[in-house]
Each structure stands twice: as structure tokens, then as C-alpha cells.
Design a protein that fits this description.
The chain has 414 residues and is α+β, with helices and mostly antiparallel strands. The protein is 46% helix and 10% strand. It has three domains: 85 residues, Integrase, DNA-binding domain (Double Stranded RNA Binding Domain, 2-Layer Sandwich); 99 residues, Orthogonal Bundle (DNA polymerase, domain 1), CATH 1.10.150; 190 residues, Orthogonal Bundle (hpI Integrase, Chain A), CATH 1.10.443.10. The strands form two sheets. A five-stranded mixed beta sheet has the order 1-2-3-4-5, with helices on one face. A three-stranded antiparallel beta sheet has the order 6-7-8, with no helix packed on it. The longest helix has 21 residues. The chain is elongated, with a radius of gyration of 32 Å.
Length: 414
């Protein structure tokens, strides 16, 4: 052929040789129904394309590869593209809109995760909620998930399984839709997602009412619980639980504690990147200091709480069951944090000091923002809580024990 312009036929296109690496050759279809159809030949493929100007700007649209796409199919597709362009519309923009409109919940979640820096536990919890509460929605386009679907699933899962988890799963879904509403826009800047179906739960006041857990170890139960902990066969889990109740640390904060974060000379420990993202330094009471000195002497791991082979402890479900069986006191790791907070409050530890001990955000509390709580100022309150627990557990000599009932508990957050 002496020209790159000819009426496309299957034998002619099959006879075309692929281009050399780095080269692209364009052939133009001269058939009367071609509508600007071209064939781009590269080193690896022969691709049907249409090239037109949209609002004065050149735009190239790929239609499909020959021979998977036939010449007849390519000509029809080229005619559709040309008709779209004749209306002043951009095929590329339309394809982008169509792609965004087909975004599934799973794809939106993946995009959401790619834009967020979340803790591993949070990511795990989101995935677990989605897989438990609405796994059948993951492959559905976002736009197909309606308010009616949300309300029905929220109600049914809450009644059949867990109201708290139903609420949590829908809060995660709301966050994904809020993200999509901002992230997914057409070329003109118009949002693709215009309705967040979860908002109807608030509008109709349909959220499940879930009472905050109030369980803790009462003062008269501390001795039974302590003795049961001391009888555990694993000193690693034993010491871990003791540290939780004497510091109020969260479960994962204590599990992730490394020796690099413990200053046995300065008598402090530091939790790096905790829940509120602010490093949390606590003074060590005398009892905890001695406990950690003994652990450090025999430790073979970077983690403070690790088994004999240096691996971070992870599964203590059986230990908690054993403690409950022996002592008749049921206490989760978060119950120990709640116990610490309640004891501290009963000892009249100032509210600002208690917030610092628990590493709570001060939020809109302007006064708290002006108070700099040096770790040494927390040493006395920390020691007071330790002394109370040790005396109540019968570890130290007896002292007056202040009983606290469930009605005297304070909110300590997650």
C-alpha cells in the first residue's frame, strides 16, 4: 500500500505488519460509514481509535483491538463517538462519569483506605464490620445502595446479632459515602455521589440505643481477681494484666510496648502513636518499676510483653476465662482501664490529671489547653492509684478502702 488511507477490510488489516518498538503508525478508514475511524499500529497491537476535537481540544478515544473487535463493530462505535462529539460532549468525560457511577462499595472502600492513614486495628475492625453486616453489598455500585436498604439492614442485623455493631458498621458506611461525595467528581466538578443513604438513620432517629458498658472490678473483688491472675501459668500474661490495671492503658497500647519506650532510670514508659496520635508518657509507680526491672533482666524480645521465644503475646482469651473461673470476677482488658479510671476518680485525683493519665483529648476544654501536665506532676496520682489497688488486693498492709458502686463510674471512652 502506498497510502495510509484506504477502506478497511479484514485481509488488509491482517496483512499489516506491527510497528518497530517505540513507533506508532496511524491508518485511516475511507469507507463512507467510517465516521473518522482509524487504526493505530504499535509494536504489540492494532487498535481502533477515533480522533476528534472537542470544544477545540483534540481528544483520542480507543475503541478496541483488532481482530477481537471487528471492522463493522469499530465503525458503529466510531459513529457513536462522533455523534457524542457533535453534541459538544467529551467521550473521555462520559467514560469517566460512567466509570465513577459503576464504582462498587469495595472499590470505594479501597480508595478510602488509600487516602487515609489508619491504625491496623481500625482497618481490621472496618473490614470485619463490612464483612459481617453487609458483605453482599461489596460488589454493588455505590449508587445502588439506597436509604431503604440501609435502614432495613441496620434494623435486621441489630435485632439478630448486635445493635452496637450495626451502628458501627453504618458509621463506617457513612464515612465511605462522605469520602465518595468529595472524591468522585465529573470533569466539570459535579459530584457523582449526591446522596448519603446512611443519613436517613439520623433523620428518622433510627440508630439503635446502646448503653455504654459499665463493667469493672469492684474494690472488694480486687483481691479475688489479683490472686487468680497470680495463679496464671504464664508470667507474661500475668504481668501484662497487672500493668493494665495499674496504668489504665488500652489493650493494644500495652501489647505494643517496647523496651525502647521504657525508661527504668527516669521511671517512665511512653506509648507511641496511641489512639489520639499524641505520644503518651506515664510515670511508673514503685510496684510497676520493680515488675519491669525483673522482666527486663530476663527479656529476649524488643517487646515488653513477649513469650519465652520473644514473640509478642496475643492470645489471652483462655487466661481471662481461667481468671473468671477461679475468682468469679469477669474483667476484659478494657474493664481494667475502666477500673483504673473509677478508682482514680474516687481518690479525688483532679480531673485534668485524670485526663492526662488516661490520655484523653481535651476537646473544646479551653482551660485544659493551657495546662501543661509534666509527667512528674502525674507521679503522685499514679502512685496513689497503685497503692489503693495493692491494698484492696491484699498485696500491701490493709488500709481504709473506699467502696465505689456502678453509679459512681465515669466515662473513659474507647
Amino acid at each position: 500500500m502506498s497510502s495510509n488511507r484506504f477502506s478497511f477490510t479484514k485481509p488488509l488489516l491482517e496483512s499489516l505488519q506491527l510497528a518497530l518498538p517505540g513507533q506508532r503508525i496511524i491508518f485511516h478508514d475511507t469507507h463512507k460509514h467510517a465516521a473518522g475511524l482509524q487504526l493505530r499500529v504499535s509494536a504489540t497491537a492494532k487498535t481502533f481509535i477515533v480522533q476528534r476535537r472537542v470544544n477545540g481540544m483534540p481528544e483520542r478515544v480507543s475503541l478496541g483491538r483488532f481482530p477481537l473487535m471487528t471492522i463493522e463493530q469499530a465503525r458503529r462505535a466510531a459513529a457513536e463517538v462522533s455523534a457524542t462529539i457533535a453534541k459538544g460532549q467529551s467521550p473521555a468525560a462520559e467514560r469517566k462519569r460512567e466509570t465513577l457511577e459503576r464504582k462498587t462499595l469495595q472499590e470505594a472502600f479501597d480508595d478510602y483506605m488509600g487516602r487515609r492513614t489508619l491504625k491496623a486495628q481500625t482497618v481490621f475492625d472496618i473490614r470485619r464490620c463490612m464483612n459481617e453486616v453487609y458483605p453482599d453489598w461489596l460488589k454493588k455500585p455505590l449508587q445502588s445502595i439506597t436509604s431503604e436498604m440501609v435502614i432495613k439492614r441496620h434494623q435486621s442485623y441489630g435485632e439478630a446479632h448486635s445493635k452496637a455493631r450495626a451502628n458501627l458498621a453504618m458509621r463506617y458506611l457513612r464515612a465511605i459515602f462522605n469520602f465518595a461525595a468529595v472524591e468522585y467528581e465529573d470533569p466539570q466538578g459535579h459530584p457523582i455521589i449526591t446522596v448519603n443513604p446512611v443519613k436517613k438513620l439520623s433523620a428518622t432517629k433510627a440508630w439503635h440505643r446502646v448503653e455504654r458498658r459499665q463493667s469493672l472490678i469492684k474494690s472488694h473483688e480486687l483481691g479475688l481477681w489479683w490472686d487468680a491472675v497470680q495463679s496464671l501459668p504464664s508470667p507474661d500474661i500475668r504481668d501484662y494484666l497487672i500493668l493494665l490495671v495499674l496504668t489504665g492503658l488500652r489493650r493494644e497500647e500495652a501489647l505494643g510496648l517496647r523496651w525502647d519506650n521504657v525508661d527504668l532510670i527516669g521511671k517512665t514508659l511512653t506509648v507511641q502513636d496511641p489512639k489520639n496520635r499524641k505520644d503518651h508518657t506515664l510515670p511508673l509507680s514503685d510496684f510497676l518499676l520493680n515488675l519491669l526491672i525483673q522482666r527486663r533482666a530476663v527479656s529476649v524480645s524488643e517487646f515488653v510483653f513477649a513469650d519465652g521465644e520473644g514473640r509478642r503475646i496475643s492470645n489471652f482469651r483462655y487466661a481471662l476465662a481461667s481468671i473468671e473461673k477461679v475468682s468469679q470476677v469477669r474483667a476484659t482488658p478494657h474493664d481494667l482501664r475502666r477500673t483504673f479510671a473509677t478508682i482514680a476518680e474516687s481518690l479525688d485525683i483532679p480531673a485534668y490529671a485524670l485526663k492526662r493519665l488516661l490520655n484523653h483529648a481535651t476537646g473544646a476544654d479551653v482551660t485544659a489547653g493551657y495546662i501543661v501536665a509534666n509527667v512528674e506532676r502525674l507521679r503522685e496520682p499514679m502512685q496513689k492509684v497503685t497503692d489503693f489497688i495493692l491494698k484492696a488486693a491484699g498485696v500491701c498492709e490493709s488500709a481504709k478502702i473506699i467502696p465505689f458502686a456502678r453509679g459512681e463510674q465515669i466515662s473513659i471512652g474507647a
